[in-house]
Amino acid sequence: MQHSNVGSKKLCNKYFIILLLGLLLLSACSIEIDTLQPADDGLLEIHFIDTGQSDSIFIKSPDGKSMLIDAGNNDDGQTIIDYIERLNVHRLDFVVGTHPHEDHIGAMDDIIEHFDIGKILMPKVTANTKTFKDVLLAVKDKGLKVTSARGGMEFSLDEGVNIDILAPNSSSYESLNNYSIVIKLTYGNTSFLFTGDAEKISEEEMLKNENYNLSADVLKVAHHGSSSGTTKEFLSAVSPKYAVICVGSDNTYGHPHKETLELLSDYGVQVYTTADNGNILITSDGQNIEIKRVK
Ligand SMILES: [Zn+2]
């Protein structure tokens, strides 16, 4: 009797462990993994390419128009080129360098040299770095020009895909981060906000402008989840369901910062980081949003 009791206890423990493992597996798999491939399903695609501690976001409209927001660090060129080419894309209709820091325009020279390019948008500010000079040289060599972007500009990426530029709103800032071009993309009833590395000052300017509608379903959290961006007031105005943080694991800045993650959690926002998920693909049919990991 005693023996069988021990046996059933052991059995019980075993089931408990299996159940626990099952639950762990389920939570780890809560975001579906898919293979990266060209799709012809008429969806808007937003790819947060995993370039580690830097930003690079590739957008493809339902009719095949394309936009790249930022181009990672200097050594991310091949990663970004390979990723975009696996989607069978060889032309970038719009290339946006949100601001002249290396982790945003690092490989932009490689991108400009490699692809057929439409328009290049950057804020009206210069940086005295080799990285920035390399970008300008690539633009010049290709016979292109940089369009200075600022808050209030708008254009269509494609029919039904609208781009509103919400920042920068001043012509002089102490921190280069505040020059970040902030883009709101709207497709049908779904919307996405890309904030570069905009900090509190820029967020306050956007909040003050009554012509801006900051609300969005998905927020690309500013500055890799640093506490310098995404104030309570800004998050409350955006009121996103989902947030993506482009960040490298074990980065020296400690990004994403605990305060930012706590704030996002307080607002009930579902957060996805590239450090945890690798490449993140968000698709929209104009009504519904789907989030996947792609390899
Ligand atoms: Zn950055």
TrEMBL record:
Name of a matching Pfam family: Lactamase_B
The Metallo-beta-lactamase domain, residue ranges: 53-249
InterPro entries membership: ComA-like_MBL, Competence_DNA_uptake, Metallo-B-lactamas, RibonucZ/Hydroxyglut_hydro
CDD domains documented for this protein: ComA-like_MBL-fold
Protein name: Beta-lactamase domain protein
Organism name: Tepidanaerobacter acetatoxydans (strain DSM 21804 / JCM 16047 / Re1)
Phylogenetic placement of the source organism: Bacteria, Bacillati, Bacillota, Clostridia, Thermosediminibacterales
